[in-house]
Structure formats: C-alpha cells, structure tokens
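Figure-free illustration: sequence to structure, shown twice.
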Amino acid sequence: MLFLSENLKKYRILKNLTQEDVAGYLGITSQSVSKWERGETVPNTETLKLLSKEFDVSISTLLGEPRKLVCQCCGMPIEDDSILGRNKDGTINEEYCKWCYADGTYTYNDMDELIDVCVKHMANEVFSEEQARAYMKDMFPKLGYWKRYDELSDNGQFEEFKQQLIKEINDFHIEGLPKVERLNALVGKYVNLEYTLPNGKQVKFLDDNKTYLGNQLKSENDGKDVLEFLQT
C-alpha cells in the first residue's frame, strides 16, 4: 500500500505535472511539494481537497490508507474512485456513488423508489427479495442523505424534471415501446453498448464517465429489450 508521500508523487507524474506546476496551482513553493513527496511534511486538509481536484482522485485514495467509503444514499460500498459521484464543478464527492449523485444533483428523492431499484440487484439465492427490502428499509434512514433529506433535498425539482421527460418520451408514441413509467440513474460504463456501423467500425454512443437517466423495457413487438437513455 502506498503512503501519502508516494501517492502525491505518483498522481503528479500521472498528470504529467512537475513539482513547480503543482506549487503554482496551490500558490506555494516547489520546496513544500518536494517535502511532501519525501514524507517530511504533509499538506493540510484544505490543500488535500485542492490536490484531490487537481489529480482527480479521492482524498481517501491520496492518503494511501483509504477509509471504507459507503454511498450515503443507497449504502453501496465504494471501492473504486471511478464510481464516486461528482459535484457541479467536476470534483469528486466521496459521500455518494454515481448512481445517486451526478453533477451536483441527487438522482433519487423517493426512498421507496430507490429501494425498488436496489432490491433487484441485491436479491439472490441466499437473500430473498423480502429480506433485501427489509434490510434496506432499516438501513436507508441511517444514511447521511436520508438523515439530512430536508436539508439536502431540492424539494422535488429533479423529480419533476424526470416526470416531464417521461411525459415527453411517451408523447412520441414510438412503435413497440411500452409506456415508460420510471427513469433510473444509469452509469454509462455499465450500459454503454457497442454497435457496428455499416463500414464495420465499432462505436459506442454513450460516455462511460457520465450518468444517464434511462430504463430497460420489453418491446411490445418482438419482446426484445429496448433501452432508453437521457443524460442527466
């Protein structure tokens, strides 16, 4: 496991930055950066936040002894920085996963709706749907987002936005597409299907790093899955 000093050097090099570049960004001397990388001193909390933004990794990753991150909306363990949520300015938010928090927006405002989504992924041969639902009903109210819901909530604005999108999709009356009842948060990396163009080139239409609103429905014509995606 790498320590803070080693990680500061590692991620600086990965970003093709010199110690002088980092010092200029922080408004300090390059000697200070050099001391960090030699383990003689450590940056303070506010500086760590700036370094996290500059290197595009979580503070937990920089420290080299990561605390166990858990999404404070859905309770999912977060073991990889790539699935952490992002603030409006693009910086990493260590409190939430990409499914629950995207570009500074909380994607779920209804606890029961989120439980319905999570149950499908949690239920298995040893954990029934009823057990999964009971577990989440007990756990969710203890998570940071739901404990501070009145403070963090947008008073239903995003939910209104989703309902408007659902109406607009249904108003197209697309042949074979059943009525859309719900849009869920979907991360591009996990639903980005590859298509073959007439020239044989393989392409993907989504961005792996973006969070989308979408759903997977059975076509009324042939029973095949129809995917609907809208970027948040």
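We now fold a second protein in the same way, so the two outputs can be compared directly.
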Amino acid sequence: MTGSDATIAATSAGAKASPRRRERWLEFKKPIPTWELILLGLIVWVLFFGIWKLATAVGWAPPFLLPAPDAVAMTLYELFASRGFLMDVLVSVYRIIVSFAAACLIAVPLGILMGSFSRIEALFNPLVSAWRYLPAPSFIPLLLMWFGTDDTSKLALLFIGVVWFLMTLVMDHTKAVKTEFIQTALTLGANRWQVLRTVIVPAVMPNVVITMRQMLAAAWTYLVIAEIMAATDGIGAMMMRAKRFIHADEIMAGIVMIGVLGLLFDYLFRVLERILFSYQEET
C-alpha cells in the first residue's frame, strides 16, 4: 500500500468513526412525521382553550362579555338545534362561493395575460393598482344606493374585496415563469396561443391555486362586513342581532363557525391542489 492509499484509508476510517450529528428539534425545512404534525396541532389548540377557560374561571372579565368555551359550544348547539342557524350558515357559504368564483373568473385569466404580455399589463395595471389600495368597506354606501339591500350588494362587496389583490398576485406569479421555457417553445415553432396554453398556464397554475386558497381567507374576513348591510340572514346578521342584546356567547359562536368553515374550505383547496398537481410532490 502506498503512502497516498494509506492516507485515503485512514481518512475513510476516520469519517466512518466520527459520530453522527445529533438531530435538532428545529431543522430548516425538514419534514416531520404525521403523528408529530397532529400532536403539535392539538397542543396549540389545547393551550388556546386552556387559557380561555382559565380567563373565565378566574374572572378576568364578566361572563356576559367573555363566556366560557363550554358555554359557547352549548350556544352553538342551540343555534343549530332550535334557531335555524343552519340556514344562516348555508346563506353565508353561498355568498362566499358565488362572489369568490366571480372574482376568480375575472382575476385569473386577466392576471395571466397581464403577466405574459407587457402591453396588457401597461393597459390594466395602473387601474388595478389604484383599486387595490381602496378599502372595500368604503363602497358600502354606493353599493346600497346602486343595488339596495338584497344579495347583490353583499356579493359585490365580497367581489371587490378579493378581485384586485388576486389579479395582482396571479400576474406576479405569471411573471416568475422562466423565460427559457417560453423561448424554447417559440424556437420549436409554437405560436403565442400555444405557448400561453401549453407552457405558461401549466407552469403558473399550481401557484394560482395556492393564491386562490390564500385569498379565500380574505373573502371570509369581509363576510361579516358584507352581512352587516341590512341583512336578515347569514352568520354576520346573526352576530349583529346578538350584539343588540349583548349576547356575547352568540357572537363568539358565530366567530367559531366562521373559523371552522374557513378551515374546511382551506382543507378542500389543499386536497384539490394535491389532486391537480400531484406531480409536484413526486418531484
């Protein structure tokens, strides 16, 4: 064995003998087991409800202003069992779905076109940028004058609160598509429509679905504001009725219901994302 061979062998033996680095509890972007994911998620909810229960037990606030978690749960049950709350929930879900679908039908195609063609961006972006900074609730007086107190004004408010932000985010994701993909398709003889349909849209759609899931949360935040507008049904209307009589338990039950529905919709979007773009997980 030569000197160099002996050195290599000694180095290899030392590398094998060196102790393995101890795994830390916090590792950058490292996946964790499913059981640990569920456990950590449960822990944070146990802490939340535990602090809430403690606050009511020691009397940090009067019970009529801060009801206990079990009181809110009982109120939620009563709302569904004897006060027709299910219809309010269905009306709110209907308003979210219709308004969000309308916003997506306009924002997604136009955002992709703006991100793909500079002239379309130059034409629309000044208008979109200006509207993005206008608070949607400021349009409530106009919407009431234009559409009255029926569902149209509420759907319009939810639409305005989502469409401009969604359009801008879709445009930015489309701009991030690598130019090399587009140039390669053009070099192979594809026309603009083919490049848009077979290169840009498939490349950007995973990020578009993620953006839609994020903006759906914004739509839920506008729901109560929309249903304040002289509404007689919906979760927000129920909460406003409860506010008149200082029924904090009913208001908190409405908040809990919105949170549960938001989590459900978010989960459905995650499932849709896995089904449509399963190749990303494989990659």
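Summary for the second example: The longest helix spans residues 192-228.
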